[in-house]
Amino acid sequence: MPRLSEQVAAGRRRHVLESAWRCFSRDGFHATTMDDVIAATGWSSSAVYRYARSKDELIEAAARESLGQFDAVVTGLLALDPAPPPAQALATVVAALDERARHEGYDLTRIVIQAWSEGLRNPAIAELARSFWDAARDRLTGLTTAWQEAGYLPEAVRPEDAAGVLTLLVPGLVLDHTLLDGAATQAVLRAAGVLGD
Q: Per CATH, the architecture of 60-195 is what?
């Protein structure tokens, strides 16, 4: 049997991962079984196990993908020149939440919440989340420094402290977007508007 090209193999692994994410988004990590994932792929079990050895591997991949998507949003904000004011930056984050909720069959905002809770029992996921947030806080310091230089933050506020507040704010926005009615998110956007438009 000829070997699959790297591109074909990567596409097949992605199919397995997205099948798992659909199950995780609908039923959660622990209610989902490998049989559920196998059924979602439409493949045989042996074909699926070629691309994912266990449910734990699929959970870790889901955590990496969901956290990585938010990392991409932060990186995109930092690439803007000039830096967007606070209200615009937070509106960009909220728009990204909407976009990540619209994947066909799965919602990465639901998956990232599960990843955070999974970190309470799985040290590998806890370390992954910790390293993500440490890096995000460091990168956001660049944004808050630009805000201070533009006059959006008072001189007395340390940019790294403001970045720490943002890293605490993002999980709240995700929860409000996913579980609540979004009213808190709108309040945050209004408050951010006071800092500059």
A: Orthogonal Bundle (1.10)
